[in-house]
């Protein structure tokens, strides 16, 4: 007898093949039969009539490294069809770490990924691990709503080996390189899915210092690559210099993404392993991404294995009265900033308070994340848009805050003030920057269509009060397969393959990512007519009561992880079949 039959759906199998209607039979966590009508009896049937049936999504760019030690639900990934996450990206993570270095590692993660340090202090069981293998052992004893894979972070590794010299980004010695190389091999042999690094000066600790490894010499990255070669497994992930622009305010990046491609090529050839790195459209050089993809194709034709990692929309930098916004730091606002939200809205609606705040400018000390964002929000009003349902991530420019302000005969700052008070202060707005330079997402369509790219960059688990791009997995289907009106769409089967089979293949997870007999039963049943991304909202459920943005989706009729239904009709079943994924997997 089968455990489940998923009955009568349109099967989009994750390979890119044309969808076909049929059943999927599941037993003991695996797909055992597929296609046509399955007559073998089952303990439970899932009606997929009128729905598509896909593999579960494999999200290769998350930052749940802290959250996995206190949370088993792993929202918002679980609410957007994700069944496997890969964390430890961007060169930041929590292992290896000496007991005396906890503060430094938290400082690094808080600054780079905007995860409250208080939550990391209170929520993580510090002292229960030191080595990367011990960190994996800790996770191996836990269960989740989906599977979790971890990568070794260059920042943590460098600090562990070099201490303050590593944090200060001094050059590594030959002895340092040998030790790092050995630790890379050991971590991969223990089950790490890869190693990650950050080379952009935009990634800084909360104390303001660039991530350890930001200025690493080529011989250091090649030493890490040699460690990968010795293990014979793993992916090298990088955020390269220039990924988010020139950053003149921080001193300027030392190179551009196109100039980093030769080094990434050398890492791929030395390691014999795949390399994935972030690519996005830049305001100062809107066609730079195209040159990077062309250079990637040339390198791959010559034996490299490079995979630019792209996002299907603009990175949505969010603003809300309870998170980051334009008026933080202004003296009159700061007088009411600590009031409960409802009371703050009442105060801010008073005409004298409104006039005072609008007339002031921030009073700040040394620039921090909030100061930098306040400055960003001030110049980004022409690219600031509402995030109200139905959500539109490819709006026309006349819908922007600045355009709306002009039409109403008020200043953009006045309208932003009023917008922030909408929905009793709960409304969210987004700055659409990267990939939206021309007011269109056409560059995203071209990036997604490229055969060398992989899709990622959800950043789930990070930037918890600033970005909510985990819904980008659902956006692939709602926007690119169904709703887009301002240009061409993309085939559903291509998008499903990007979300599942392509990402699983990159990380050597051969047991999942496609629907076929013998594969893990990681499955989504999706009602495409009902599929929608919900408006973002705040929930105060991190350790110490800290807040985070959540953005679930509607239309996932069922999600199955290893043959167990974890979600039914957009609701958590409470089942926790997810486990740690150690290393590459075969079917």
UniProtKB/TrEMBL annotation:
Quote the CDD domains the UniProt record gives.
D-aminoacylase (cd01297)
Which GO CC annotations does the UniProt entry carry?
cytosol
Single GO MF annotation? hydrolase activity, acting on carbon-nitrogen (but not peptide) bonds, in cyclic amides
SUPFAM superfamilies, per database record: Composite domain of metallo-dependent hydrolases (SSF51338), Metallo-dependent hydrolases (SSF51556)
InterPro entries listed in its UniProt record: Amidohydro_3, Metal-dep_hydrolase_composite, Metal_Hydrolase, Metallo-dep_Hydrolases_sf
Record's Pfam families? Amidohydro_3 (PF07969)
Instruction: Specify the Amidohydrolase domain's residue ranges.
Output: 44-564
Provide the protein name: Amidohydrolase family protein
